[in-house]
Amino acid sequence: YGRSVDYLKGELSSLDCGLISASTILPLDFSMLEKLSNKKIIIYEESNSIGGLFDLINHYYKLNKVDANLIQVAIENTYLEVGTVDELRNKYNIGLDKLLSIIKIII
Predict the structure, then answer these.
(1) Taking the chain (107 residues) in consecutive chunks of 10 residues, what is each chunk's mean pLDDT?
(2) In angstroms, rounded to a whole number, what is the distance separating the alpha carbons of residues 41 and 105?
(3) Alpha-carbon 13 to chain mean position
(4) Which pLDDT value is given to residue 1?
(5) CA geometry: angle 34, 29, 96, nearest 5 deg
(6) Rounded CA gap, 36 and 3, in Å?
(7) Which of 43, 63, 73, 86 would bridge with 54, disulfide CB 3.0–4.6 Å?
(8) What is the model's pTM?
(9) Cβ atoms 20, 32 nearer than 8 A
(10) What would the DSSP string read from start to end of the chain?
(11) Across the strands, what pairs with 70?
């Protein structure tokens, strides 16, 4: 959401992939999840890897016995340091350049 989505829209415009912005975690869009269930899904979160959007989506697919191909880019479970958004993204290996490299490898 926000600045990340704006940046990624421009970078992804020439690639064969889509971008969905989840500005809120709940409610989950179940019809969208069903449409995406046969695709590779990269879930990018600028937060802790535990208890976020990835876990909710993964739980939904497990409950519905869907073998979805989910990839998570998030901060490993740790105490965070103080810094600017860009400093923290780079420190915890979730920078937008890292995300783009993952996307390009996958597609």
Answers:
(1) 81 86 83 93 91 95 96 91 92 91 89
(2) 13
(3) 17
(4) 63
(5) 95
(6) 24
(7) 43
(8) 0.85
(9) yes
(10) -THHHHHHHHHHTTSS------SSSSS--HHHHHHHTTSEEEEEEEEESSSSHHHHHHHHHHHTT---EEEEEEE-SS------HHHHHHHTT--HHHHHHHHHHH-
(11) 41
Residue reference for tokens 């490299």: 101
Name the one residue in this structure whose structure tokens are 């490993």: 76
Question: 78: closest CA among 54, 48, 98?
Answer: 48
pLDDT digits (tens, 9 = 90+) for 23-43: 777 889 999 999 999 999 999
| Distance, CA of 11 to CA of 4 (rounded, Å) | 11
Phi, psi (degrees; rounded to nearest 5) at 94: -125, 25
Q: For tokens 């937008």, name the residue.
A: 96
